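Hi, can you check this record?
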Amino acid sequence: MDLATIKSFHNACLLAKRIAELTAGLPANLPPHYLYTIDAIMSIKEEAGSVRTTDIAHVLSVSKQTAARYVNELQRDKLVIKTAVPNCRHSHIALSKKGEKYYSDHIVTLNKKLVHLFGSISKTDMQICVSTIQQAFYLLTSAFPGI
């Protein structure tokens, strides 16, 4: 690997961050991580039936503490409901009616627009992009734990 390729990849990652910011799709005053957390909750619920903070952390590739902070922010804004599980140290997390409305009004609508907008990019190219970013993230977090 040469330095020019690394710089080019880093610049592409910065553009990817801008893409994420541009496509946040939530109303003003709500941070983009709300979108990702709400979407993660829906995905986990559809796949596993129940959602825990550790599940969200795994899907978002963040620490458990960061996922807990996200959930607490969403709970404060009445977008999620946490229900304690008897005889367990964790809670189940679900979207509130308001959270479900945000999901259907903003996330589903945004994803439909993106499918149309990105239609000219092949599925293979998109999968290679995703895989490369995930590998780079894994390598960086392995080399620099705690960042």
